[in-house]
Design brief:
With about 260 residues, this protein is α/β, with parallel strands linked by helices. It has 2 domains: about 1-80 and about 170-255, Rossmann fold (3-Layer(aba) Sandwich); about 95-165, no CATH class. The chain has helices spanning about 45-50, 75-80, 95-105, 110-120, 120-140, 155-170, 185-200, 215-220, 235-240, 245-250; strands at about 5-15, 20-30, 35, 60-65, 65-70, 80-85, 175-180, 205-210, 220-225, 230-235. The strands form 2 sheets. Strands 6-7-8-3-9-10 form a 6-stranded mixed beta sheet, sandwiched between helices. A 4-stranded antiparallel beta sheet has the order 2-1-4-5, covered by helices on one side. The termini are far apart.
Length: about 260
């Protein structure tokens, strides 16, 4: 059995009178694509925001790479080894594609601010290495030729891929993708699926929130289904698809 990369036990979150997450637990192993699905308002984004430090959980324990991990501030989460993309693309619009990926890489850089100010030899060497790695990652996600273009000039699908390249630049233990297929056409979805598959084959571990159930079922090793903040099913895509509670949540009352 491959190593457990990420484990959540009993994650809970309230907003005033609303229990947005109620005792959610999951375990993701190395090299898995793990899907998190559920109807609108199911608590998927709340869960993502809790594990990536945007919201403080009210309860639950978290393990990352076999060590206890407390999701606090977003930058600490990146340093700990979780990289995330957002449902609404968050790129530096006026920076080039290459610069956007370099920013992600700086999370792992060593020379720090003083080296940057003094432009020490070690800073220059590291900067050159960061630039090279950023270009490699752009090539990897298939948009290498757009390195010098401003991020805002890229097509929607390419901006999504740029965001994934930037996440990869932090060398994460876990990549958390928030609705990566949202707004994509059928062709872009095929390309996205191939990219996620490639990332997994290269030994990376992915947590995927996605509305596109077909994409999730075709791509994920395991799936958790949330409904009204509660975990109603967990298992392989085949198991989850047959689950009565899941069928009801998607087709039943209250979710039209």
């Amino acid at each position: 059995m491959s190593q457990e990369v990420f484990k959540v036990q009993g994650a809970s979150k309230r907003f005033g009178g609303l229990q947005a997450l109620s005792d959610v637990s999951l375990s993701i192993h190395e090299g898995q694509v793990y899907g998190l699905i559920g109807p609108n308002g199911a608590g998927k984004t709340t869960f993502f925001n809790v594990i990536t430090g945007l919201y403080t959980p009210d309860g639950g324990s978290f393990m990352l790479g076999g060590e206890a991990y407390t999701p606090q501030a977003v930058h600490q989460v990146a340093k700990a080894g979780i990289a995330r993309t957002f449902q609404n693309i968050r790129l530096f619009a006026e920076m080039t594609a290459l610069e956007n990926v370099m920013v992600g890489r700086h999370v792992r850089s060593a020379s720090g601010l003083l080296g940057a100010v003094l432009r020490t030899p070690s800073f220059k060497a590291e900067e050159a290495a960061i630039r090279q790695r950023a270009q490699e990652l752009l090539d990897y996600v298939g948009i290498g030729k757009y390195a010098p273009y401003k991020a805002r000039t890229l097509s929607y699908g390419d901006q999504r891929r740029l965001e994934i390249a930037r996440a990869l630049a932090t060398d994460p233990k876990l990549i958390a993708l928030d609705e990566p297929a949202a707004g994509m056409n059928a062709t872009e979805k095929v390309v996205l699926r191939e990219l996620i598959d490639r990332i997994r084959k290269d030994g990376r571990t992915i947590l995927l929130i996605e509305h596109d159930v077909k994409l999730v079922m075709g791509l994920c090793d395991r799936v958790t289904v949330l409904d009204y903040g509660k975990q109603i099913a967990e298992g392989t895509p085949a198991e989850v698809q047959k689950n009565e509670k899941v069928i009801e949540a998607y087709l039943g009352a209250g979710h039209h």
